[in-house]
Amino acid sequence: MVEFSFHYQARNLDGEAVSGRVEAETRQAALGLLRSRNLFVVKISQARAGKRRLSVPRGRVRVKELAIFCRQFAVMNAAGIHLLQSLHDLREQTTDRLLQKIISEAVVSLEKGKSLTEAFMINSGSLPPIMINMLMAAEASGSLDLTLQRLAENFEKEMQVRGKIQSALAYPVLVAVVALMAVAVLLIYVVPIFVDVFDQVGASLPAATRLLLVLSSILRHYSHLIVLSFALLFVAMKYIQKIRIVFTMRDMLLLRLPGVGSIATGVTISRFAHTLSMLLHSGIPLLESLDIVEKVIGNSIAASEIAEARRQVEVGESIAPAFLKSRVFPRMVTSMIAVGEESGALVDILDKLGSYYDQDVDFGITRLASLLEPVLITVVGLMVGFIALSIYLPLFGLSGSL
């Protein structure tokens, strides 16, 4: 990743004007770093000679590893173990090499006198924005162990949702793979045997049989090209999905697909509610919390609507009206947020919303799994039936002509 230099003008807690230069990977990271130093930024701009150094891209730490790290870190901090000692022990315990490197670099930074937030912000590209910002809030409020517990719970919720979806799809995917393999074996090895029989007896072939023979011929002669095409398509999709219009269309389709759409919507609203509640409960201002939620929500349609809500809040409006014409957040969510804002109990309302949609997602996943199984079995039966019928139709014709 690339680090840049940013010139800034700010005011400290005494109201004095200060200026200088800060190194960070992004403008947002630079702002976060300055805020952690209790500076109110007036102006910030990237320096012309901004490129500083390149580090090897290392991807992101897995959610499972983050959940374990935060949970153990919280326990050790609550037990009164020194920060550096805790990180040394956690580095030795983790088996994830990326997390080990991040902890090692954080230890070095702490030994140089940097804050915990600054120490982890060095690797902000490998950690979720919510973690960096909540650590910053925890240092300001002195509630590190409680914040780490909340982060662990948040990551564990993410793991649970992913695990439920994977478990629900495991059997249908297995059935689909086995069915495709069985059909491929039939087309490559079994159908050609009957082709020779049909040629020898000069049987008249119906349209279904001719189609089957064409499919068999394509699969036998061009199987390597088919496999290569799918492999190239799989690789290309990783890059194509990064194009804004493509991932926007993908997210829109995901929200509208029958069966899947309700689950995707539920997951999005649950993530929004739990994350915003956790951030507000940690003392992070609403504007900053919405900015973080926008980045971690995982759906571009919802992200754009959250960005609009943030703009409304910036000009003094409440959140709820921004979601009135939402394509993701239903009217019930908007009404509950409005009640929460009016009553001053927004955090509690968001917690209840999150719990409600957690249950809704569980029900949706169970229902989808129960629907997919018979549908897949029916599709497999139709495919095998088509192959069998296509093979035996000419034989029935032969027996009738004898």
From TrEMBL:
Location in the cell: Cell inner membrane; Cell membrane
Domain of life of the native organism: Bacteria
Record-annotated Type II secretion system protein GspF domain positions: 69-192, 272-394
Pfam families: T2SSF (PF00482)
Alphabetized UniProt keyword annotations: Cell inner membrane, Cell membrane, Membrane, Transmembrane, Transmembrane helix, Transport
UniProt keyword annotation of Cell membrane present: yes
The keyword Transmembrane is assigned to this record: yes
Cellular component, GO annotation: plasma membrane
InterPro entries given in the database record: GspF/PilC, T2SS_GspF/T4SS_PilC_CS, T2SS_GspF_dom, T2SS_GspF_sf
An individual GO BP term: protein secretion
Membrane topology: Multi-pass membrane protein
TM ranges: 169-195, 222-241, 253-273, 375-398
Record-stated family: Belongs to the GSP F family.
Protein name: Type II secretion system F domain protein
Organism: Syntrophaceticus schinkii
